[in-house]
C-alpha cells in the first residue's frame, strides 16, 4: 500500500457551511455554476416520529456496530422510513457540532435556492459548469426533522444542506485539484413528513475523524440563506459495521488505512457522548448499496 495517497487531514474550511460555500464558488466562477439541475423533491412514505425504531429498540443502547442489517421487508439499496432512527425520545435535540459552520444569508450574491443546481436530491456529481460524477458505494441518506417545541411533529418545509467528503476523504471546492468541483453537496426541502433524502456515495475515512456527514437545518428554503435562520448544525455518524464492509471493497483503500486510527468514542465531534444521538440506522450491502436514516429533533 506504499502507493496510496497520504492520509488526509481535515481541511481548515471544510466545516464553514452554505454561505462560505456559495461565496467560494462565486469568487471562482461565474454564476453559471449555479445553473443546471432544478429542485428535486422526492416524497417518501410517512413514518412515525420520535419513540423507537420499527423493532422497538431504544436508541439509548445503540452502539457503533448496531443496526447494520435492514429490517425485514426493507429494500437495502433505498432509504426507508423504517430505517429512520429515533433519538431516544421526544425532547432530546440533536447535538450542536462545530462552531465553524455559518448559515448563508444571500449577501454574497443572489438567492441560489431559487434558481440553483445546489437544490437537488442526487449529490453524487457536480452541477453547473462541471458534471464530474464521483465513484463509490451508493448511499441513500434520509433525515426526518422533528419540531421539539411542538411535540416533535414533523418539521415540514424546513431545508437541509448536507455535504461530505469523497471516498478518499477529500472535499470538493477545497482540496487540491477539486477547487472547481461541487459534488457531494446539496440542499433539500422537507416534505409533509419532515423528511429529506439525499442520494450519494458512502464517504471515506480520513485521519482524525470518524466517518460522517455534515448537515445544517434551516427554518425554510426561503430562509436558507438568511443570517440567523439556522435551526441546527450537526453531523451524522455512520456505523462501524457498515464502514468496515465498505472500506474492504475496491476503491476505498485509503479509507481502509485511515479508519482504524479513530474510534467513535475518541472522535473530536462524537466522542463526548459516543455519538449516541447522531448514529444512523443503516442497512444494505456493498453490491446493493446502503441506506442510512436519522431522526433530527430541533
Structure explained in plain terms:
The chain has 298 residues and is mainly beta. The chain contains three helices and nine strands; from the N terminus they run H-E-E-E-E-E-E-E-H-H-E-E. Strand 8 and strand 9 form a beta hairpin.
Query: How many helical elements?
Result: 3
Low-confidence stretches: 1-8, 28-88, 99-115
State the distance separating the first and last CA atoms: 43 Å
Shape: globular
Helix % is under 10%
CATH class: Mainly Beta
CATH architecture annotation name: Sandwich
CATH topology: Protocatechuate 3,4-Dioxygenase, subunit A
What name goes with the CATH superfamily?
Aromatic compound dioxygenase
Beta-strand portion reads 15-25%
In a nutshell, what does this entry contain?
The chain is mainly beta and 298 residues long. The chain has helices at 18-28, 240-247, 253-258; strands spanning 138-147, 153-154, 159-163, 185-189, 195-201, 212-218, 230-237, 281-285, 289-297.
Topology:
Layout: H1 18-28, E1 138-147, E2 153-154, E3 159-163, E4 185-189, E5 195-201, E6 212-218, E7 230-237, H2 240-247, H3 253-258, E8 281-285, E9 289-297
Parallel strand pairs: 1-9
Antiparallel strand pairs: 1-2, 1-5, 3-4, 3-6, 6-7, 8-9
Amino acid at each position: 500500500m506504499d502507493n496510496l495517497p497520504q492520509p488526509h487531514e481535515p481541511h481548515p474550511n471544510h466545516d464553514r457551511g452554505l454561505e462560505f460555500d456559495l461565496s467560494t464558488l462565486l469568487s471562482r466562477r461565474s454564476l453559471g455554476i449555479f445553473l443546471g439541475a432544478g429542485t428535486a423533491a422526492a416524497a417518501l412514505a410517512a413514518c412515525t416520529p420520535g419513540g423507537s425504531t420499527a423493532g422497538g429498540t431504544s436508541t439509548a443502547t445503540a452502539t457503533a456496530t448496531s443496526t447494520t442489517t435492514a429490517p425485514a421487508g426493507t429494500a437495502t439499496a433505498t432509504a426507508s422510513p423504517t430505517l429512520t432512527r429515533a433519538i431516544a425520545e421526544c425532547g432530546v435535540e440533536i447535538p450542536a457540532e462545530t462552531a465553524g459552520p455559518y448559515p448563508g444569508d444571500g449577501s454574497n450574491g443572489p438567492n441560489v435556492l431559487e434558481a440553483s443546481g445546489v437544490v437537488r436530491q442526487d449529490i453524487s456529481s457536480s452541477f453547473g459548469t462541471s458534471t464530474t460524477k464521483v465513484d463509490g458505494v451508493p448511499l441513500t441518506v434520509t433525515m426526518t426533522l422533528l419540531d421539539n417545541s411542538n411535540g416533535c411533529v414533523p418539521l415540514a418545509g424546513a431545508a437541509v444542506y448536507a455535504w461530505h467528503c469523497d471516498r478518499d476523504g477529500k472535499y470538493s471546492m477545497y482540496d487540491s485539484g477539486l477547487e472547481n468541483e461541487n459534488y457531494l453537496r446539496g440542499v433539500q426541502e422537507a416534505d409533509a413528513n419532515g423528511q429529506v433524502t439525499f442520494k450519494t456515495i458512502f464517504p471515506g475515512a480520513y485521519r482524525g475523524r470518524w466517518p460522517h456527514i455534515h448537515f445544517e437545518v434551516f427554518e425554510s428554503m426561503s430562509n436558507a440563506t438568511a443570517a440567523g435562520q439556522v435551526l441546527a448544525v450537526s453531523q451524522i455518524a455512520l456505523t462501524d459495521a457498515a464502514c468496515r464492509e465498505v472500506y474492504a471493497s475496491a476503491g476505498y483503500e485509503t479509507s481502509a488505512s485511515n479508519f482504524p486510527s479513530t474510534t467513535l468514542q475518541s472522535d473530536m465531534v462524537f466522542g463526548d457522548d459516543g455519538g449516541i444521538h447522531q448514529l444512523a440506522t443503516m442497512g444494505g450491502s456493498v453490491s446493493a448499496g446502503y441506506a442510512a436514516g436519522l431522526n433530527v429533533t430541533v
